[in-house]
Amino acid sequence: MSAGPVIALHGGAGVNPARNYAEVEAHLHDLARRMKARLIAGLGALDAVCEAVFDMEQSGLYVAGRGSGPNREGAHEFDASLMCGATGRAGAVAAIQNVLSPVSAARAVLEETPHVLLAGAGATQFARAAGLAPLPQDAGWFRLAVGVAPEDLLEPQAHGTVGAVARDANGRLAAATSTGGTFGKLAGRVGDTPIPGIGTWADRQVAISCTGVGEAFILAGGAGDVAAHMRYGGATLETAAHALLARVAALGGDGGLIAIDSNGHVAMPFNSKGMKRAVAGLGRATQVAIT
User: What pLDDT, on the 0 to 100 scale, is given for residue 2?
Assistant: First the structure.
């Protein structure tokens, strides 16, 4: 446990143990190390989670941003959300298209509007008006995420997400999550990722980012259920996190989450075959794992 700055990352719970994730492990280790240094130097928690998720979106290594798959209409629709624990404010976009960085669009919603969530064409129009970069015109910009084979794009409910949670030097917490959604999804499908309180949550006690079958996380109560177990029931971070995953499993879903509490405790449980994850912080060695 570290009472100083700490960051945890996930690259999604959609893992096939038979495939090689060495490139992901190297990227997560380097990103966690870099973000640890930035936090120790004074970077705020909200800036840290946004920077980390932006990096993962642009890498193409995960099912978010550049590594996203198309929906059944052949279009790429993205979901993202972020939340600042110190202010209790959140921003999110759902089914947004033609934006380079979904998490940046979510942050613009938080900072430039009175709203929490913008969706579909309205979210895309807002991103243009806010001056956010569109997708590159290069048809080859999108790529298959590491561990994803072409046949996986036809598998129902195959999923992937990226997320980050952080505690900064002032004890402030924040969380951010981004995804390209499930492969072969219906146009307009929205999972848990862009819903504050479900895919993402941060308050003064805990910050959480979820990954997995979004429909099951929505029905199970999501990240807000973890926070409620801690706030009203006095549960520990680990106990509350595992309770949510038990509800997800009972609904036929799988996945995982990363979470940090106000004391710097970190939990990264999952009930899938693996979850790409990393943690680093003051006085804490950088750790990376897949299964």
Answer: 54
Strand 266-267 versus strand 255-261 pairing type: antiparallel
Distance separating alpha carbons of residues 230 and 209, to the nearest angstrom: 16
Structural domains of the chain, with CATH: 6-289 (3.60.20.30)
DSSP reduced 3-state for 51: helix
**Average pLDDT taken over every residue of the chain:** 96
Taking only the tens place, the pLDDT of each residue in 166-222 is 999 999 999 999 999 998 899 999 999 999 999 999 999 999 999 999 999 999 999
- Tokens for 11? 């690259």
CA dist 60 and 10 (Å) reads 14
Which of 204, 198, 202 has the alpha carbon at shortest distance from 221?
A: 198
Q: Band the pLDDT of 155: cuts 50, 70, 90.
A: confident
Name every residue whose Cβ is closer than 8 Å to that of residue 183 and which is 6 or more positions away in sequence: 63, 69, 152, 153, 154, 155, 158, 159
Residue 81's Cα: distance from chain center in Å? Answer: 8
Catalytic residue among 124, 161, 177, 211: 161
Q: Are 230 and 208 in contact (CB under 8 A)?
A: no
Is 161 in the active site?
A: yes
* Token duo for residue 286: 């950088």
Model confidence over 34-72: pLDDT tens digits?
999 999 999 999 999 999 999 999 999 999 999 999 999
234-260 burial, b if ≥16 CB within 10 A, otherwise e? ebebeebbbbbbebbbeeebbbbbbbb
Tell me the one-letter amino acid at 206.
V
